[in-house]
Known about the structure:
CATH architecture of the largest domain in chain B: Orthogonal Bundle
Number of helices of chain A: 10
Number of helices of chain B: 21
Strand order of the largest sheet of chain B: 1-2
Helix content of chain B: 55-70%
Largest interface: A-B, 32 and 23 residues
Structural class of chain B: mainly alpha
Oligomer: heterodimer
Helix content of chain A: 25-40%
Largest sheet of chain A: 6 strands, mixed
Radius of gyration of chain B: 29 Å
Order of helices and strands of chain B: HHHHHHHHHHHEEHHHHHHHHHH
Strand content of chain A: 25-35%
Number of domains of chain B: 2
Order of helices and strands of chain A: EEEHEEHEHHHHEHEHEEHH
Distance between the termini of chain B: 59 Å
Number of strands of chain A: 10
Largest sheet of chain B: 2 strands, antiparallel
Distance between the termini of chain A: 29 Å
CATH class of the largest domain in chain B: Mainly Alpha
Number of strands of chain B: 2
CATH topology of the largest domain in chain B: MetI-like fold
Strand content of chain B: under 5%
Radius of gyration of chain A: 18 Å
Amino acid sequence: MKDVKIQVNDLSLYYGEKKALKEISMQVPANKVTALIGPSGCGKSTFLRCINRMNDLIPSVSITGQMLVEGVDIYDKNVDVVNIRKKIGMVFQKSNPFPKSIYENVIYGSRINGITDKRELDEIVETSLRQAAIWDELKDRLGDSALGLSGGQQQRLCIARTLAVNPDIILMDEPASALDPISTSKIEELVHELKEKYTILIVTHNMQQAARVSDHTAFFYMGELIEMGKTDAIFTKPAKKQTEDYITGRFG
Amino acid sequence: MSSPISSKQNFTREGLKKQFRLSEFLAEKIISSVAFLSIAIIFLIFIFVFKESLPIFSLGKESVKVEMQQSASVSGDQPESYGGVETEDLQPESYGGLETEDLQPESYGGVEKEDLQPESYGGVEKEDLQPETYGDVQAEPLVENNDSAEGTAKEEKSNSIWDTLLTPDWVPVSENPRFGLLSLLIGTLKVTIISMLIAGPIAILAALYTSCFASKRTKEIIKPIIEMLAAFPSVVIGFFALMVMATFFQDIFGYDSRLNAFVGGVAMALAAIPIIYTISEDALSSIPKTYTEASLALGANKWQTAFYVVLPAATPGIFAALLLGVGRVFGETMIALMATGNAALMSANPFESVRTFAATIGAEMAETVFGETHYSVLFFIGSLLFIFSFGLNALAEFYVKGKLIKKFQGK
């Protein structure tokens, strides 16, 4: 892999005494979609949350090892976590728009970064919503509350909100798990388009989804990275027995 | 094979028959009757308080002097003045109701009414309220009624309760008692505003700190301590204000009257803070973690998250907390009695002594004569307090349900 965006070296994570991630080492290529798969509780979401340091919010968590984003260790003492999160956006499993209007939701990130110019904000809203392929549906009701939208629209609004702060990397934690097939396919299309500009990591329980949207796939099991490689390779001829068992549905 | 299946029928008419479960029935009835009882008790209290204040609506038509001397003869006076059209003893009470009020001018519209009116015009021309009587009888039935009634008794003194209620003079015990509620109202509002200005920000910021910033351990220490303040007897807070805070603030601000609205307001803030804090903290803590996470993931720092996401989302709960705080301060008696100086003064100066509604009742109720005007006026103040807090709660209910929730949650 030539363009390595994220280089992980021997990353371990502990919830108190319990070791939840065991010496993970991997490379995430730039401008590609990397899928993280594995059974529930295998640590893939935990790993995803390590990348933008959301695990900092949990007091009992301690982390060892290195997480290099473009060569910078984001767990270095001198790195500001707020700046990391501006560059590494996250979309959550459950859509979580703020209880504000659609417009306010999209510009939230810009507003806290001190942008107050109305025209600039309008522009941000339009481009973000267009990128998230939801502009046509929402352009006439920007003042409405975001909580009145359907689940799929809410999730795409959350993606638009993430895009509005102009990140480099987007982390998606099972973004389509609570959505119907039509909304899911819209999100998948969106992921496909977004990889032109962004590096995307997506956690999914859905094998077909991983096969459809991702370029690379990493298989996690019991806190360990079992195997990582091109999606085609993983799904057609996995190197490890466990991977094959999981993909073919023998466990998990 | 078929016979055992059919004999082992699970759904029979017998098995599914409606059963009467006595214990369930009784439990349900007891619970609902207890609930209704408690509601009924609240209503009965209000009715009692209001009933005790009723005499000022009816007796009001007599001059204060007459009423003081011969409160029993009220009904006797009335028929005479109306020229024998109505000889019922109930007459004074009927003035309280608005419906009968409107009817009266029409039904009496004959000669009797005419006889009455000139008297009242002639006798009380100097009164400010009198001109209103001519114009809109329906609009202000109570005032009209008193004025016209006043005319009947004007030979004694043209000074009805309703005229004095809107004056600043609160001199209930004197040769010429005056029951001006205006200065009491101003005093109450002054103390309430001062204490809410102090308690509101402190309590809300403290709640915000514990719910958004404090570590779990700190929260476990701070929350019970502040909540413990709520269990503090108000007489202790009042005593503290009286002995310590009054001197302390006097040294700082150098005002003249040691006990005043400001000291009382600060002391009442101490009583209101735990209430506002507890409820706003609950409201803030119940904001879903997903909002916080979403905000942090967008690169917001902690305080931006707290002020732009958590606080707005919790606004309905915080609003309710503030209203409960206002209710507490408005009705607080002991602290007001001890720390506000109890002088019914009309002044905007926060460092002047004030007398609040609740403190007035507390201080004077024990020393009035049962059934006397003063007694009724105190009960009238009680009803005002009741109506005010009821109105506040109703407002909160409608405002929170209607506007705020729509605005912040879009439901």
